Amino acid sequence: MSTEHRTAMLEKLEALDTEHAKAVAGGGSKYVERHHARGKLLPRERIELLIDEGSAFLELSPLAGWGSDFPVGASVVTGIGVVEGVECMITANDPTVKGGASNPWTLKKIFRAAEIAEKNGLPTVSLVESGGADLPTQKEIFIPGGKLFRDITRASARKEPTIALVFGNSTAGGAYVPGMSDYTVMVKEQAKVFLGGPPLVKMATGEESDDESLGGAEMHARTSGLADYLAEDEHDAIRIGRRIVARLNWRKATSITGPSYAEPDEDPEDLLDLIPSDLKEPFDPRDVIRRICDGVSAANGTVFDEFKPLYGSSLVTGWAKIHGRPVGILANAQGVLFSEEAQKATQFVQLANQSDTPLLFLHNTTGYMVGKDYEQGGIIKHGAMMINAISNSTVPHLSVIMGASYGAGNYGMNGRAFDPRFLFTWPSAKSAVMGPQQLAGVLEIVARQSAEAKGETFDTEGFKGIKEIVEAQIEEQSLPHFLSGMLYDDGVIDPRDTRTVLGICLSVIENKPYVGTDRFGVFRP
């Protein structure tokens, strides 16, 4: 175990906590205090009361918008929580950030939450308090924003219940969230739901009106019929919401948890010691597997049944259980994927589909091997074979980027473009087309060849400054905060929480039936 590795990881986790704190802070102390002074709860306070006491809430995309012109968190909280024993997708507007107005990152975050709910067959509970679109960015919101309404109605058609608890304003396009949800609860004297507020109505029709007659909770409960339940206050609205979920008669499609399971044989705390700060330094993913998977017990025999351990040793494959649930694991060992690793992965993915077993990908790869011998040996067709298998696999996929995830290795290991059910990164992760030094070096070679082709002298000293700028830019854009801000993952997590996070995800996927496929694209021999 390395104290140097632990120190470096703890520093990264401290930086991560700082960024998460920005999301929790919302619009800042001034607006938080104003919100509390009005007798209202903050979004995470509402979620805490909504979910079952003592249960976990898996927050998703908390760093959305990081590095953009908008506050970290994108003015909405999304995540999976257990309500009356039912796993639900929960979304909650943060009214302390510009009144909960939706910016472009808000949309992307909500769309990702809706995608997770659809793929895993989850009911959705929306905790609504939003002033609608952030008007200065309407050109980026209006056209794609219609997808939000489409997703709500399609969820209802799939018999995946949608519930809206309205705590404040829900105006303009936002009025359709309670309008299109299966169940709508409005808080008396707080909820305001209308397509156009008094100023807009005055401008459009000349009519004089007030908030309550246009869109007050009591009006919608007594007159328009938009409100199915009228709550006395926020706590009452949450109580009603919990009762609605309790009456859904919700049943999981399957439950494959074993009768019992053992905690890992090795302490997950040690994960902080395993990951080198220099990703060029290899580490054994089996050490990770022993700390996130079930330990030895009478129920499951061994921790990890490794498949083809002597072949393609740069990729570790095998079978294990996490919280009693079976998984097939593909984990990078020495970083580079050779032809043997690609062929081994292809067979393993087919076997997982044959046995209807979910797959877990643990990334630490610099990509597929390059060079004359490897090109002639068929690395392209073998890498394509692996990507073919993963692209067409129909069992649920989960991905954790532990270290490097570069180039086509990111694709072969089921990166974001391949639609894993969930993808999380560790603070040690980096992901890009290639490493910063390699990319800058390639640019220098290309620039040198271009100058020589023109009969010019290449300015080596002058290009040094460009290389430094490129390296710094790629390094920044490879870091987990940046990637998470772009919603290229579902969150940056503490390595010690990996087992818990994966356990929640494996439980969530049981809400919808799945079977493996025996149909893949053409494999080139």
Q: What's the arrangement of secondary structure elements?
A:
Elements: H1 3-25, H2 29-37, H3 43-50, E1 57-60, E2 76-83, E3 86-93, H4 104-120, E4 124-130, H5 138-157, E5 162-171, H6 176-180, E6 183-187, E7 192-194, H7 198-205, H8 211-215, H9 217-224, E8 229-231, H10 234-246, H11 271-274, H12 285-292, E9 304-307, E10 315-322, E11 325-332, E12 336-337, H13 339-354, E13 359-365, E14 367-368, H14 372-376, H15 379-392, E15 397-406, H16 407-412, E16 422-425, E17 430-432, H17 436-453, H18 460-478, H19 480-485, H20 498-508
Parallel strand pairs: 3-4, 4-5, 5-6, 5-7, 6-8, 11-13, 12-14, 13-15, 15-16, 15-17
Antiparallel strand pairs: 1-2, 2-3, 9-10, 10-11
Helix pairs in contact: 4-5, 13-15, 17-18
Mind explaining what this structure looks like?
It is a single chain. This protein is an alpha/beta fold. It contains 20 helices and 17 strands. Strands 1, 2, 3, 4, 5, 6, 7 and 8 form an eight-stranded mixed β-sheet that branches. Strands 9, 10, 11, 13, 15, 16 and 17 form a seven-stranded mixed β-sheet that branches. Strand 9 and strand 10 (315-322) form a beta hairpin. The radius of gyration is 25 Å and the shape is globular.
Main sheet, how many strands, which sense, barrel? 8 strands, mixed
Percent of residues in beta strands: 15-25%
Q: Percent range for helical residues? A: 40-55%
Mean pLDDT: 91
Total strands = 17
The number of distinct helices, counting runs of at least 4 residues, comes to: 20
Structural class by SSE content = alpha/beta
Termini separation (Å)? 43 Å
User: Which stretches of 5+ consecutive residues score pLDDT under 50?
Assistant: none
**Which descriptor suits the 3D outline?**
globular
What integer value in Å does the Rg equal? 25 Å
